[in-house]
From TrEMBL:
PANTHER family: CALCIUM BINDING PROTEINS (PTHR23055), CALSENILIN (PTHR23055:SF165). Keywords: Calcium, Cell membrane, Ion channel, Ion transport, Membrane, Metal-binding, Potassium, Potassium channel, Potassium transport, Repeat, Transport, Voltage-gated channel. GO terms for cellular component: nucleus; voltage-gated potassium channel complex. This is EF-hand domain-containing protein.
């Protein structure tokens, strides 16, 4: 049997791999099977729910042919390029684009929109801070607005990227000031924002000091040279070697 840590190389729809899943074959010559953007597989993702609920015509569960017909009118520029950059099919990109344009006619998403989305999906907590951090992770050039292209490239990594790609994205989320290092304060700020958003409905019920304990434990393992900051290499190495950290980071699956 394989060692367990081999089991989380690739996943299709979960954020950081599912411990019980068998990895897709990585043998040469085997074509990577692109999973479909089925509602069942991806509707766990808040951003996809938001987009696809707007993409579907009101009051109907539209059939594939209807989707294709309406997709013709909604072609993002550079569709072929986006298809090459992401792990979405052409049809999936059209469907996402239609919803995106319905929700954001200007073609841009701002931070307030993110806050609105997450407050709707997590009414039991306060999602403001988490939405702020998540928005900044998507807003690669830091100009306060996210284009469809950036949005869909980020979604592709989070939903269908390799474990390595997802971890690099998570590092970027934790690195709040984008200086290439994660400090304990940054990690605590992100963790606390997630706990605040989840509210009292998390299971098991969380104590007030849970985020701090969580971060102390993670940081001790990750900061290998004990210099008070975590580099991307330390982060990737520790996360991929430590099953507890990998499974803890799957908390993210519920909050994207």
């Amino acid at each position: 049997t394989r060692p367990r840590k081999e089991v989380m190389k690739v996943s299709d729809g979960s954020l950081l791999g599912e411990p019980g899943r068998t990895p897709l074959s990585k043998k040469e010559g085997v074509k990577w099977q692109r999973p479909r953007l089925t509602r069942q597989a991806l509707m766990r993702c808040c951003l996809v729910k938001w987009i696809l609920s707007s993409a579907a015509p009101q009051g109907s569960d539209s059939s594939d042919s209807e989707l294709e017909l309406s997709a013709v009118r909604h072609q993002p520029e550079g569709l072929d390029q986006l298809q090459a950059q992401t792990k979405f099919t052409k049809k999936e990109l059209q469907s996402l684009y239609r919803g995106f344009k319905n929700e954001c006619p200007t073609g841009l998403v701002d931070e307030d929109t993110f806050k609105l989305i997450y407050s709707q999906f997590f009414p039991q907590g306060d999602a403001t801070t988490y939405a702020h951090f998540l928005f900044n992770a998507f807003d690669a050039d830091g100009n306060g607005a996210i284009r469809f292209e950036d949005f869909v490239v980020g979604l592709s990594i989070l939903l269908r990227g390799t474990v390595h790609e997802k971890l690099k994205w998570a590092f970027n989320l934790y690195d709040i000031n984008k200086d290439g290092y994660i400090t304990k304060e940054e990690m605590l700020a992100i963790m606390k924002s997630i706990y605040d958003m989840m509210g009292r409905h998390t299971y098991p019920i969380l104590r007030e000091d849970a985020p701090l304990e969580h971060v102390e434990r993670f940081f001790q393992k990750m900061d290998r040279n004990q210099d008070g900051v975590v580099t991307i290499d330390e982060f990737l190495e520790t996360c991929q070697k430590d099953e507890n950290i990998m499974s803890s980071m799957q908390l993210f699956e519920n909050v994207i």
